[in-house]
Amino acid sequence: MTLPQQTEIAFFGRITAGVTHELKNVLAIINESSGLMQDLMALAKETPAYHDRFQKALTSIRGQVQRGQNLIARLNQFAHTPDISVRAVDLLEAAGHLVALSQRFATLKNVSLKVVPPPPAEQPIQATLNLVQFQMALFAAIECWLSLAAPGNELTISLARKEHACEVSLACEKSFPAGDLAAAEKWPLLQGIAASLGGAAEIDARKPGILMILPTKPPLGVSNE
Amino acid sequence: MKGWKVLLIDDEEDFVMTLAERLQLRGLCTMAATDGESGLKLLPNESFDAVILDVMMPRLGGLEVLERIKAFNPQIPVIILTGRGRSEDGPRGMQLGAFDYLIKPFDIDELTQKINDAITRKVTEVSP
């Protein structure tokens, strides 16, 4: 990634992170205002008109505040991604954040995305890499899959540790012809980003699906910043 | 908890006024300020049992206000409110002497519990 590109991404990250802090304040005001309404209803000597409907609406508001809070926390973490270009990354956590933020794209196609957690005893899969590029590669792979997905499909993303490398597998229960995935609009982008990470993306004929193989150490010539 | 006097400092007026009202409904005496300077001016004239302080405020930031509160009276427990994750302002505030911190938006019961813990600990420390 060139310096101007890094600067541009950092710019978007900073602005987005700033906005997430503001959105937290918005949620805090909604939370307190709905809480005050609930307090006042509880203090009322007589049951107010539409009591049950108000309670239901307030419960809904609180649920949406919680939903917004979770999304904003993930978005904030995502916005801080470009702060350090190359770093030690827990790949499963990074994949989990990206998938959570990508759910909307899947929902629009009536399909689902999920990250398969490793067995409890498994150590975190760590790699020293550019987190922005890792998430871009994963998103490009998701977009390739989404471009072919049919309603009701489920994409599962799993990670496995290999010697000096990590395998990121995107598979689904429906078989896609390998040629179709490779013809997806984002396929060249995925391959390009995977290559810049020192790895590769290929059609996984076993599942079928997409297999990314990424080194857990930065390629030569890439230094920590 | 009834009658404890708590100062709230937050630049979001809608937030601080609503929170003040909710704490009053729970028996606390509250005063609210919408910037750090106004909050600090109230300190010498009132005897506050605790301060609830937002970190991200324009002009005088919350952490600087915290330092000035602690310089004025190290015994006043301060609970800071932050919009950021746990790796940033919260722990920094605790290093500067805050009793605890909460990430916005939070549950009112969590805040009242922390106020209770902060003030009862202070009372215990001052009069063993």
Describe the structure.
The complex is a heterodimer of chains A (225) and B (128). Chain A has a five-stranded mixed β-sheet with strand order 2-4-5-7-6. Chain A has a two-stranded antiparallel sheet with strand order 1-3. The longest helix of chain A has 41 residues. With 225 residues, chain A is of the alpha+beta class. Chain A is built from six helices and seven strands. Chain A starts with a helix and ends in a 10-residue tail after the last strand. The mean pLDDT of chain A is 86. In chain A, α3 runs parallel beside α4. Chain B is of the alpha/beta class. Chain B is built from five helices and five strands. A five-stranded parallel β-sheet of chain B has the order 2-1-3-4-5, sandwiched between helices. Chain B is globular and about 35 Å long. The mean pLDDT of chain B is 91. Classes of the chains: A alpha+beta (225), B alpha/beta (128). At the A-B interface, α1 and α2 of A face α1 of B.
Short description:
With about 220 residues, chain A is of the alpha+beta class.
**Main beta sheet strand tally, sense and closure of chain A:** 5 strands, mixed
The quaternary organization reads as heterodimer
The number of strands of chain B is: 5
Mean pLDDT across all amino acids of chain B: 91
Largest sheet of chain B, in brief, is: 5 strands, parallel
Give the CA-based shape of chain B. Answer: globular
The separation of the N and C termini of chain B measures 19 Å
**Protein structure class of chain A:** alpha+beta
Q: Residue ranges of chain B: pLDDT <50 for 5 or more in a row? A: none
Write the layout of secondary structure elements.
The complex is a heterodimer of chains A (225) and B (128).
Chain A: H1 3-43, H2 51-79, E1 86-90, H3 91-108, E2 112-115, E3 126-130, H4 131-148, E4 154-162, E5 165-172, H5 178-182, H6 187-196, E6 200-204, E7 209-215
Parallel strand pairs in A: 2-4
Antiparallel strand pairs in A: 1-3, 4-5, 5-7, 6-7
Chain B: E1 5-9, H1 13-25, E2 29-33, H2 36-42, E3 50-54, H3 62-72, E4 78-82, H4 89-95, E5 100-103, H5 108-126
